[in-house]
Design brief:
It is built from twelve helices and 17 strands. By secondary structure, the chain is α/β, with parallel strands linked by helices. The strands form four sheets. Strands 1-2-3-4-5-16-17 form a seven-stranded mixed β-sheet, with no helix packed on it. A six-stranded parallel β-sheet has the order 8-7-9-6-10-15, with helices on both faces. A hairpin with a 2-residue loop joins strand 16 and strand 17. The radius of gyration is 35 Å and the shape is extended.
């Protein structure tokens, strides 16, 4: 099982580079040069130019040929006839609508739905293209002529705050217009004034309707978008906007291929808290795991202390005492001296110092001169703890597994129950639901990838000697050879 420490260790090995920065590898990759070039499409997206001696390879997947609101277009100035081009052919036969037409259609659909007192559900990713959409919606809401100031708009996903907060610190990776505006006016484009961030359905309900909800995920297979689809699809005033051409077998692809469907049976997965016997079994299992963990830690500490004591004893061994080995022609025996036996029961240490009789004086009064009645305190504790006898130890025991008194066991159980109650144990259940689809379902391509026409022009400009294409996750060798 991987832990957060493994994730942190993996991220520590990542080397951050800027656009047009050349990185020279060392070690096994000595002599290889990597250069990151702007690819558009998403924040931080890049294509890679890999050079070794006189050979050049370009890896270009998921790029955008034109500028967008917060991103620059692909950068091809430093690429000229590479030896090999690895390219994406996802849109080789597909021409999405132009950006102006796409944005106009999206704005018109939102305005019509909100003015008809309906809600808009936009299925989008969590931290990629959602930044372009959120920036556009915030600008639309700031425009007084749009008349949308009285309506709500929010982003609903589990990392909404983290994504937007991270985007605020990545201005240098955005379009030149936003960079200049930030340098002159110190205005962060992602310091939204109208877009609200929500992390749960409960927070979403606090936003008044009609509203626009940008929820994850785009394929409607999981996440908040699937949960909201069941409720939003039943209202004829609502609109559900699909933004991605997702894979086959997903709910989004099915709705895109069947836009006029009126009834759908789907499985709704949700998490519910454990109750009754299931909750009791979970608490018992969790309590046993904690006890086993504490016992293992205690055994590890004892073993470490034993090894430390043994090493200390070996260091104190007289120099004339050495290991004795008896060798024979047929058998070799090793006799371990008694000074190294476990627990040092027969250890013969150095000459002890003189000891004198000492009797410890037992105090019967505290610092203030008040007599201490130990028996009376024990009797009072019995009454307080309802007859549970408490052993007053001079030193508290760290290990939970070693607390053998009844009072300690009861306290341990109460603490464990409280800790496990804070974790809110849940289980995932699947319920088949029949959904009456009365809402308007519309597909508006917001992927921001290259279209077929622009792809042909880019390939003609790069003019690679050889090319390998990736189409639907598969690599095809070779697709084209330019001479």
């Amino acid at each position: 099982m991987f832990t957060l420490d493994h994730v942190d260790a993996a991220f520590d090995k990542i080397t951050r580079v800027k656009y047009s920065q050349t990185l020279i590898l060392k070690g096994k990759g000595e002599g290889i040069k990597l250069t990151a070039l702007c690819a558009g499409h998403m924040l931080g997206g890049c294509l890679w130019k890999i050079m070794k001696d006189e050979e050049e390879i370009v890896y270009a997947v998921d790029f955008a040929p034109k500028k967008e609101r917060h991103l620059n277009a692909i950068s091809l100035e430093s690429i000229n006839r590479p030896h090999l081009l690895i390219c994406d052919m996802l849109n080789a036969t597909y021409n999405p609508p132009k950006r102006q037409s796409r944005d106009l259609e999206l704005m018109t659909t939102i305005q019509q739905t909100l003015r008809a007192e309906g809600d808009v559900l936009v299925a989008m990713d969590t931290a990629g293209r959602v930044l372009e959409l959120a920036y556009m919606l915030d600008q639309l809401w700031q425009n007084k002529e749009s008349g949308l100031n009285n309506f709500g708009v929010c982003i609903l996903n589990n990392v909404a705050y983290q994504s937007l907060d991270f985007a605020k610190s990545q201005i240098e990776w955005m379009s030149e217009k936003l960079v200049k505006n930030f340098e002159s006016n110190r205005q962060n484009p992602f310091a939204f004034h109208n877009v609200q961030l929500c992390h749960s359905i409960a927070e979403l309900k606090k936003v008044k309707s009609p509203k626009v909800v940008v929820a994850s995920q785009p394929d409607l297979e999981c996440g908040f978008s699937r949960s909201l689809f069941v409720d939003y699809a039943r209202n004829p005033k609502n609109t559900i906007i699909l933004t991605y051409r997702t894979g086959a077998g997903t709910l989004s692809r099915f709705l895109g291929n069947n836009p006029k469907i009126t009834k759908l049976t789907m499985d709704v997965k949700q998490r519910v808290p454990l109750e009754g016997m299931e909750l009791g079994d979970y608490l018992d299992k969790k309590r046993q795991e904690l006890a086993d963990k504490a016992l293992r830690e205690q055994e590890a500490r004892e073993e470490a202390e034993l090894k430390a004591a043994e090493m200390e004893a070996d260091m104190e061994m007289p120099p004339d005492e050495k290991d004795i080995s008896l060798a024979d022609t047929e058998l070799a025996l090793y006799i371990r001296p008694y000074s190294r036996l476990p627990f040092h029961l027969l250890k013969r240490g150095p000459k002890p110092n003189a000891m004198y009789r000492f009797e410890r004086e037992h105090r019967t009064k505290d610092e203030f001169g008040v007599s201490v009645d130990v028996e009376g305190m024990k009797s009072k504790l019995k009454v307080i703890n309802k007859g549970v006898e408490v052993e007053i130890a001079p030193k508290p025991i760290d290990s939970r597994a070693s607390q053998m008194s009844k009072f300690g066991a009861q306290n341990l159980k109460m603490e464990d129950d409280q800790d496990m109650a804070e974790e809110a144990p849940t289980k995932c259940i699947t319920t088949p639901v029949v959904v009456d689809i009365n809402a308007l379902i519309k597909f508006i391509d917001f992927e921001g990838r290259v279209d077929a026409e622009s792809l042909q022009k880019i390939l003609a400009y790069i003019n690679p000697k050889r090319m390998v294409s990736r189409w639907l996750g598969l690599f095809i060798f070779p697709v084209a050879v330019f001479l």
